[in-house]
């Protein structure tokens, strides 16, 4: 009996493997969530300075080196500079062992880190349960990791990096060359329709109000989801994200935690709705069509 046969015969081990892989990936996603926006900001500053130099501006500061990459240098405590060792970097367990504090200086470590790790572990296990031992399960985990990273980056900075949305859009199309989730034709139409739907809403809203109702990253995220899940998933994604987003926004305003003029990032709701449709999209669509049929 080979490994795949064993995992199919013992699904509990496959679920456990998905959960452990999710915890490890979640630890790396914490790095992406923290570093990628800062890497982008450093690049933008460098590009702006280069443009000003080309325009003849003088007295500008010299080019700044990138603060870090996604792989190096090693993570350090922002307060004391203590390098995080291997035993301090075990997902969830290290945070509990350290009681949420730096071992060197006692500075608090945000609970965000174990939350992201645990969330990713649970979502990966759900993908393993839903798709079994298959290429679809691995693809679902890849998409899930990207959605988790995009969600927290959008919550922190209110943008969705092209460095994630565009490669994962192409990855969805390539994965569906073999019809992993939907036929390629549906994936291509889904990518185009996903972008155009929110782009049209953006243009209409801006023409009517003179304001920008959403960022361009939202168009690309819905295009990404269309590339993975096909055009048939788009109505459900838009409906679920809009309802949950509107309800959450109204609740935050009512509780005084969100000003009416302050924008609310839409990416997390698109990502959440996309993940729901990834796992249960066919069931949701069938139930909706049955309801329409009376």
Walkthrough of the structure:
It is a single chain. The chain is mainly alpha-helical and 294 residues long. The chain is built from ten helices and no strands. The chain has helices spanning 3-9, 11-54, 93-97, 112-131, 135-157, 162-175, 184-209, 216-229, 234-254, 267-292. Helix 2 (11-54) packs across helix 4 (112-131) and helix 6 (162-175) packs antiparallel against helix 7. The longest helix is centred in the N-terminal third of the chain and has 44 residues, at 11-54. It is globular and about 70 Å long. The model has no long low-confidence stretch (mean pLDDT 90).
Output the helix-strand order.
HHHHHHHHHH
Please report the distance between the alpha carbons of the first and last residues: 49 Å
Class per helix and strand makeup: mainly alpha
Low-confidence stretches: none
What's the β-strand tally? 0
Helical residues, percent: 55-70%
Main beta-sheet annotation = none
Oligomer category: single chain
Estimated share of beta-strand residues: under 5%
Rg, rounded, reads 21 Å
Give the overall pLDDT as a whole number: 90
Q: Helical segment tally? A: 10
Shape: globular
């Amino acid at each position: 009996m080979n490994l795949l046969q064993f995992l199919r015969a013992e699904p509990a081990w496959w679920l456990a493997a998905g959960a452990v892989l999710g915890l490890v990936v979640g630890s790396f996603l914490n790095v992406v969530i923290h570093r990628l926006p800062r890497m982008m900001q450093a690049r933008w500053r460098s590009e702006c300075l280069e443009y000003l130099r080309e325009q003849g501006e003088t007295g500008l500061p010299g080019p700044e080196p990138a603060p870090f990459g996604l792989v190096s240098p090693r993570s350090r405590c922002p307060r004391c500079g203590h390098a995080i060792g291997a035993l301090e970097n075990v997902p969830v367990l290290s945070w509990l062992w350290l009681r949420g504090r730096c071992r060197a200086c006692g500075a608090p470590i945000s609970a965000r880190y174990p939350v992201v790790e645990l969330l990713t572990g649970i979502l990966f296990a759900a993908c393993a349960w839903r798709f079994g031992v298959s290429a679809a399960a691995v693809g679902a985990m890849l998409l899930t990791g990207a959605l988790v990273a995009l969600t927290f980056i959008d919550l922190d900075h209110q943008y969705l990096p092209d460095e994630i949305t565009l490669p994962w859009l192409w990855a969805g199309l390539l994965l569906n060359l073999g019809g992993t989730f939907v036929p390629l034709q549906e994936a291509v139409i889904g990518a185009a329709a996903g972008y155009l739907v929110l782009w049209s809403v953006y243009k209409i809203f801006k023409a009517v109000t003179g304001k920008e109702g959403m960022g361009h990253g939202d168009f690309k995220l819905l295009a990404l989801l269309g590339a993975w899940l096909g055009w048939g998933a788009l109505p459900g994604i838009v409906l679920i994200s809009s309802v949950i987003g509107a309800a959450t926004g109204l609740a935050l305003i009512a509780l005084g935690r969100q000003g009416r003029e302050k924008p609310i990032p839409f990416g997390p709701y698109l990502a959440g709705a996309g993940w729901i449709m990834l796992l249960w999209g066919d069931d949701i669509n069938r139930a909706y069509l049955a309801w329409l049929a009376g």
